[in-house]
Amino acid sequence: MPSPRSSRERRTGSGSSRLEFLSLVSQRSPGAPDSPSRRKEPGSSAAAPLPEEDCMKLNPSFLGIALSSLLAIDLWASKRLGVCAGEGSAWGSARPLMKVIEISGHGIPWLLGTFYGLCQSDSSAAREVLLNLLFALLLDLVLVAVVKGLVKRPRPTHNKMDMFVTISVDKYSFPSGHATRAALVCRFILRHLVLAVPLRVLVVLWALIVSVSRVMLGRHNMTDVLFGLLLGYALYSVVEHCWLSPLSAPALFALWSH
Ligand SMILES: CC(C)=CCC/C(C)=C/COP(=O)(O)O
């Protein structure tokens, strides 16, 4: 009886898995279905080699296993932490409070508030800071929409889609827009507002609570929120790098000078 190794060598003429795949294609009759029952020839002891895509599923890389395990842990833990996902959930009575926290990190109040402040500000220093905050908030909205549209990760199945004003890409969950905004605004405020230490601590706490509440409300998986925080943190550095000033953008500042 031929050994599996020698029969493979006869079929391919070499030990390379790429050549095995090519020889399988050349042996198969055109239009023949790719069913497992056809792969093993009757009377032959050695099974025909599997197509490449099946081999990849059977022998995933270390990175593939690590990523699938991380995603499985993420889904499992996020579901367990989604304790305010519905009125009937373990902490369902805290859901209204979580929704207030959700609105505190929503784009609309931040955009409207910044715009209002900009119209009301009478010092050029305040105008400069608020104009840059407006720019940062808009940049954040665009970036999150692009990443959500590219990744297209659905929201957790236990999420109720009853969010305050959303746009089309908000049906996707990666990354959390609230988390990016929380991290971005937190860094921005800490850098540009002169605040007493207790207030600085409150700002950081607010950003953390907004982020944690995304998972508790069932809106996001943990990885959406963690990536969102990293993205918002990094985005602040971009805003700082592209800082708008009366020198770099005189036309923009002329619009707001009274
Ligand atoms: C309509 C505007 C101006 C902003 C949408 C804000 C929003 C609903 C973001 C989604 O946040 P999550 O990704 O954290 O759920």
Automatic annotation (TrEMBL):
Residues 129-240 form the Phosphatidic acid phosphatase type 2/haloperoxidase domain. Residues 1-12 have a biased composition (Basic and acidic residues). The keyword Lipid metabolism applies. Its EC number is 3.6.1.68. It comes from the Eukaryota. It is a multi-pass membrane protein. CDD domains: PAP2_containing_2_like (cd03391). The chain crosses the membrane at residues 130-151, 193-213, 233-256. SMART domains: acidPPc. Pfam families: PAP2. It is an enzyme of class 3 (hydrolase). GO terms for biological process: farnesyl diphosphate catabolic process; geranyl diphosphate metabolic process; geranylgeranyl diphosphate catabolic process; phospholipid dephosphorylation; positive regulation of neutrophil activation. GO terms for molecular function: isoprenoid diphosphate phosphatase activity; lysophosphatidic acid phosphatase activity; phosphatidate phosphatase activity; sphingosine-1-phosphate phosphatase activity. Residues 1-51 are annotated as: Disordered. One of its GO terms (cellular component) is nuclear inner membrane. It catalyses: (2E)-geranyl phosphate + H2O = (2E)-geraniol + phosphate; (2E,6E)-farnesyl diphosphate + H2O = (2E,6E)-farnesyl phosphate + phosphate + H(+); (2E,6E)-farnesyl phosphate + H2O = (2E,6E)-farnesol + phosphate; (2E,6E,10E)-geranylgeranyl phosphate + H2O = (2E,6E,10E)-geranylgeraniol + phosphate. PANTHER family: POLYISOPRENOID DIPHOSPHATE_PHOSPHATE PHOSPHOHYDROLASE PLPP6, SPHINGOSINE-1-PHOSPHATE PHOSPHOHYDROLASE. Belongs to the PA-phosphatase related phosphoesterase family. This is Polyisoprenoid diphosphate/phosphate phosphohydrolase PLPP6. It comes from Aquila chrysaetos chrysaetos. The gene is PLPP6.
